[in-house]
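FYI - complex with F0G, inputs then prediction.
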Amino acid sequence: LRKREIGVWRYLEYLPVKDESKIVSLCEGGTPLYRCNNLEKELGIKELYVKNEGANPTGSFKDRGMTVGVTRANELGVEVVGCASTGNTSASLAAYSARSGKKCIVLLPEGKVALGKLAQAMFYGAKVIQVKGNFDDALDMVKQLAKEKLIYLLNSINPFRLEGQKTIAFEICDQLNWQVPDRVIVPVGNAGNISAIWKGFKEFEITGIIDELPKMTGIQADGAKPIVEAFRKRAKDIIPYKNPETIATAIRIGNPVNAPKALDAIYSSGGYAEAVTDEEIVEAQKLLARKEGIFVEPASASSIAGLKKLLEEGIIDRDERIVCITTGHGLKDPDAAIRASEEPIKIECDMNVLKRILKEL
Ligand code: F0G
């Protein structure tokens, strides 16, 4: 923290922190922006970057929000923090609350949280509660606790979370030498991140750092796409899904709390919203790993799947400068990766067999 050369706190002047001594940090942000030449060739496009948020301390972009949100909790002298989560928020909050000596309770939809995320929340020492319901049910419950002032809520309805996450936009400008991408493609679940990133670009525009804005493009999973449906009708409000379903468990959300902000970001930037199937998500996840060496969890790959689809539909021009956000590390969901892969070959310790396999590579 002393130098703040890189990461979320590089942008301290843009963050709502009053007392720097209260900052809780694990050196979040400063994630790589990869130029993807192989994917450019594969998809026939000119300029593609992946902003890999899986490289954060707990493996997702949530850490950017949590460093600011938990710092705020610290300033307020809060003792107990909590959240509902599809996994990543709980992993991140558990880590930051551990680092700042707070008690932490997390509510997860039973049986629908990827293994890596569950392991993290448990291991950082949070009280982990599995709810017989989905994320939206769990969020209703923690909101009630917050209303009764029993916990400090760190879901993305907490504005301090979004303040941290807006630094994704700052970093993209920074890493592109102050050029602004034509389009930023973001996986959308509870819709906080796309709203936060838009806020970041707007703040850089208002303060004269940049003079253009990207088209904000949100991608949802086919089985959980209330924002895409609202966008198709050019509506301001969503109709929630009661039973959202997708392999991308991180974005298995039927009633995104930040939907109005996300729709505003999409409409006012001239962006777009599209949905992708589970098959398209897995295919994109593999493509990114096998063409670029970037391993992301299924929800993250929806930005790549969305890019592919919108190119095919002619919505995205092939000469746009595009940034896809990948939101979480592939190791978060080892089950999904193994299910989508070929089984390892089992052999005896036999060199001839091994050499035969090598020839067939
Ligand atoms: N990608 C990943 C890997 C996520 O974990 C999430 C959200 C999103 C995308 C969507 O971001 O909600 O800001 O639109 N995960 C939350 C959680 C809901 O509990 O970890 P969003």
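The mean pLDDT is 97. Residues 21 and 156 are 24 Å apart (CA to CA).
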